[in-house]
Design a protein that fits this description.
With 323 residues, this protein is mostly beta strands. It is 7% helix and 46% strand. The protein contains three helices and 26 strands. It has a seven-stranded antiparallel beta sheet with strand order 1-22-19-24-17-14-13, with no helix packed on it. It has a seven-stranded antiparallel beta sheet with strand order 2-3-4-11-6-9-12, with no helix packed on it. It has a four-stranded antiparallel beta sheet with strand order 5-10-7-8. A hairpin with a 5-residue loop joins strand 13 and strand 14. The chain is globular. It starts with 27 loop residues before the first strand and ends in an 18-residue tail after the last helix.
Length: 323
Amino acid sequence: MPAVTVDDTLVLPRIPRPDPATSKARPVAEVVTARRQVEGAGFTIRRPFPGDLTLVESDPFLLLDHLGPQVNAPGEAKGAPWHPHRGFETVSYILDGEIAHHDTNGGGGVIGEGDTQWMTAGGGILHDELPTERMYRGGGPAHAVQLWVNLPSALKMTPPRYQAITRDDLRLLTSDDGGALIRLIAGDIAGFEGPGVTHTPITYAHVTLAPGAEISVPWNPAFSAFAYVLTGRGTVGPEGRPVEEGELVVFGPGDNLVVAAAARQADPLDVLLLGGLPIREPIANYGPFVMNTREEIVQAVEDYQAGRLGIIPADQLAPRSFA
């Protein structure tokens, strides 16, 4: 798993281990297994929420999709052609491979290994996410996640915004003993800030733990808290609940998250740590639109049909062909 790696984690700033006398590790409230389904032009993803975990329970997040890890043959890579969004933010994080993005607000480019594309749909936008010509022609490894972050009602119609967060922008940290590599994408961990600029207060990080390593991450007690296992096996919470690839952990109340990698495994444990300040507002959703009322959803559909969410550029209207 390329993403971002370092030769020596001990040169990185360290996250202090919380004092058990004054700090409470969050217990495990629930473990959810991601469901597999087909999206876009025909690629398979694993989705831990929404599903068994409701949108009330995942607040302020709406969706998490996990693609791969997999290796595509030449001509096999697929993407998501032009489609609309309104009312939330999409965060695409690429661990392996690359995709090309275009949107009707002028944002876009190639999102490569370790890069994050943060798109605020706000009042409305059209975009696509497709394999680059190199990935389509040559095939190769693909591994990515997309997170949808809800927006409060006051910001549902905020102007669209695009952030390209490169691998060099990430805040790299380690655990107190150097056994973990933390790639902080957004939010705060122990006073260290990630580069992502968020409308909704959240924390989002990718953590790699060496076999047998453990980490205790300080966490805002007002935030929800989740851990999603990308690859590997380990345990979570003070009770040491076993988890493995494709499982989402929902944590209970407390102010730190405990994650440990199984000692007997060939590869590290890779997890996403995410959480945020719950919005606690009504949710009305219809496909790519997430608003607060049915009337707002109807308006979003009408605006899309009338072209008010953006117009696909003329040079993007023809079907892509790499033949």
